[in-house]
Amino acid sequence: MPYIKQRIRAIYNGYLRQITNMIMREKNPNAVMTYVIYKMIKTLYDKPEWDIKSDALKILEAVKIEFYRKCIAEYEEEKIIENGDI
Questions:
Q1: Are residues 6 and 41 both part of a single domain?
Q2: Virtual CA dihedral for 10, 68, 73, 18, nearest 10 degrees?
Q3: What is the pTM of this model?
Q4: d(CA 37, CA 29)
Q5: Which end of the chain is more exposed for a tag (fewer CB within 10 A), N or C?
Q6: Count of structural domains, the chain
Q7: Are residues 12 and 42 in the same domain?
Q8: HSE on the CB side for 26, CA within 13 Å?
Q9: For residues 53 and 82, what is the distance between their CA atoms, to the nearest angstrom?
Q10: Domain of residue 4, residue span
Q11: Are 1 and 41 contained in the same domain?
Q12: Over the stretch 32-83, which tens digit does the pLDDT of each residue have?
């Protein structure tokens, strides 16, 4: 995943915290999160050119892989140590 500089992250982190807090207060946060992600992707990448549309899929796939690598894989490794490998 391309990492962005700390000064750029700082610009967005406050907004992201606000949005995240709003989503967490919702009765159905998964639905709201799906809506927010969809609207952001659609707003930025729903252009006539196919390669721009396909960039949205590349971003979503990269986010999925990064989430797995940073969050899920670590959890799975802990469970392997705790319970043994398959």
A1: yes
A2: 40
A3: 0.81
A4: 12
A5: C
A6: 2
A7: yes
A8: 15
A9: 43
A10: 1-46
A11: yes
A12: 999 999 999 999 999 999 999 999 999 999 999 999 999 999 999 999 999 9
